[in-house]
Predict the 3D structure of the following.
Amino acid sequence: MLKDSAKHFCRSISYDDPLEVCISKIQGLLLSDYRMSKRALALLLLQEDKEIVDTVRDKEGERFDKIMGIVQETKTHYLRPLTYIISLRRQKEASRIAKLTVGFPGQQKLSIKEKLSKILMDPIIGGPILLAILYYGLYKFVGNFGAGVLVDFLEDKVFIARLNPLVTSLINKAIPYKLLQDLLVGEYGIITLGVRYAFAIILPIVTTFFFAFAIVEDTGYLPRLAMLVDQLFKKIGLSGRAVIPLVLGFGCDTMATMVTRTLPTKRERIIATLLLALAIPCSAQMGVILGLLSDNGIGLGVWLGVIIAVFILVGLLASKIMPGELPSFYMEIPPLRIPQVSNVVRKTASRLSWYFKEVFPLFIFASVIIWIGQITGVFSLVVKILQYPIRWIGLPDKAAVAFLFGFFRRDYGAAGLYDLKKAGLLSGNQLVVACITLTLFLPCIAQLLMNIKERGLRLGIAMSLFILFFSFTVGYSVNLVLTLFNIRL
Amino acid sequence: MLSEHAEEILEALWIQIEEQGKKPMDVGAFRDDPAIEELIKLGFIRRDDAHIHLLEAGRLHALACVRRHRLAERLLTDLLDIRENVMDTVSCKFEHLLHEGLEDKVCIILGHPKTCPHGKKIPPGKCCLEKRDKKLLKIISSLTDLETKEKGQIAYLETKNASQMQKLISIGAIPGVPIVLVQKFPSYVFKIGHSQFAIDKELASSIYVRLTK
Amino acid sequence: MQKIAVVGSPNVGKSVIFNNLTGTYATVSNYPGTTVEVSRGKSKIGNKEFEIIDTPGIYSFLPLSEEERVTRRILMQENPCLILHVVDAKNLERMLSLTLQLLEASLPVILILNIIDEARALGMKIDTARLEKELNIPVVATVSITGEGMDILRGRIEEHVKRFC
């Protein structure tokens, strides 16, 4: 029921005669209760709003056909769609009120902000600016500072040098059972591995990424980026709007998959989800990969080239194969604003807390699963099975462990490779092939669950199977090419 | 020259056969119409026992007639602001005054419109494919044909695609609203009031602007 | 508990208004049956407590996306006793159209002219008293990020809820 305030707040615009006649005819036929004025409802019906039409069909029974008959009849009075006629009339009223109340419509002089905005949207200057943002924001700040300086400090100085030995000796003293000792502080123990990975490797990388992203987001740069890339994105079946989840994917693919819901069509959401799962490495993973290949410039180049090629190829194919409405791009370009520290901190903190709520239990869960898998022997069986495709792409058997971990968290797997490299078990070629395959490999378990949640069970599973086969095929091909041409990276 | 009446028959024939994809017209009402004989003589149509068929020469001529008719409608609504309910009678007279050459000039002034106010397709002419006659004063132009910094008021939205039109309406791109083109590449950026919007070429081509200095 | 919904187009500072009203105790959850997120929080106005809902941005009452549909569903089904329509003051002319649509639906609305500082910087002078008279609803000018006008807004909300909620 409408509140008592209804009468007080009702203020309607009068439309032209044929429309008014039809509105009142429809109003007379609407007998149910809708919690909004019948007049507004009649206008929405005239504009054939699907949801409202369905509601009215349910509620009005046999009067529905009569109502829709009036709608059809009204349409014949006008050359243009009724939305157009109604919106036009309403805007006229809005403009009339604005003229009465706005003293001076505002100058149209170009401000400094607008000049800067123009530069950011320039297709020629915009490119280098994007590269600069990526270089300083992603590579320098997240890669070097977050994944380098901070990780080194936390991992080597805090965990390996202090915390791990301390906790290990404490626990070994307190709990005399070897099995429980392994669970907590063993090679893959909850504290020595789970907590260490989460806090020493993932936390600094993800924090720096979300911080950088919040700054970029608050300036209003992202819609400008969307506008720059729209034409290119159309080729892979996406609109410029998709740039936001894809860039966020460099932080956390799981979160980015959730953000794909801001894309307007189902087709775009599916393509974006697939590309995120396959070819966008998340910050944790990228941090480790940058670390792995940092002393191998050509290797890093090959990795980057292959991943970009896969991104483009899969996008092109998906846009060819997928049925559905072609994307259309419209986006407001908000004025540039100087980011507020408090807002950036609040955003980073809330994303980080979301991330940790989602990810930390998974690290613990993963440690427990590995522990159970090890004592029951299931784990070594799966590792044995995985060794076949691993050999197939030319990697040592031990890499199978990293790949299995990779399923629990992609970054977990990458970090496993890190340990292998430290032990000197991987050649340059093997390292590159492993990095490529692992980047493309199955999304982490969190992302798999998110894919299923957002895209449905069938599509989520189908995507994962495709990615599983595809990643090993690419790994195999790269290894084959490197071997055939006798290239050593 | 073809009589007005014969031109109208030719147009109706074209709309029925080419546009609506229906069967050739029944001879019926036109049995004793002298215009039919006129059209047959010119090689525009062919008549058998029950139907009138459109021939290639007639198709081309009909296409030009339809184009003139619909351009005339656009001219009357967009430029002269003739009320929609009287438009039919006026435009029927008007179209016969537009002849080749003149019709292309009207087309250029109106910014090569793609549809008539009823939303039906206007067959493109030579001028639409070349689009190089910049000397002639444009009065109305699609947003894609404007240069950056050119401004005007939105004249109308191409009504062919309802969902696209809905998007434009919702962001406030409504006829009568002042608009400035800010950028053309890689996407179209325009300013309405104090807000800027970016849209793709598809959407931009359905906004028609009446230019102001 | 009675509800108050914050609506408006994207980029007008709805969330900041929402945060100002609710403090930090907001819960974010998916709207039932969809994957669209809606934030809810509590606010004490006068001596009554209200649930404040921060809705996804809409341009018009005729929705184009899943998110916009959720906003309309909140307005229609959750029966808020007050709607705060937040607009960017400098774009009043364009955004008034949504205000008119809300009023057409007989929904109880307070119009918030947010980011009024930017409008002033452009030399715009908005006669809020005249606007109130024309629309016949309360109109409040605010700068949500600095908190300017928020006290007045709370006062106007209190007046409203005393009369109508």
Observations:
- Chain A has three domains: 7-97, 123-304+316-353, 360-484.
- The first strand of chain A starts at residue 330 and ends at 333.
- Residues 7-97 of chain A form a domain with the Helix Hairpins fold (CATH 1.10.287.1770).
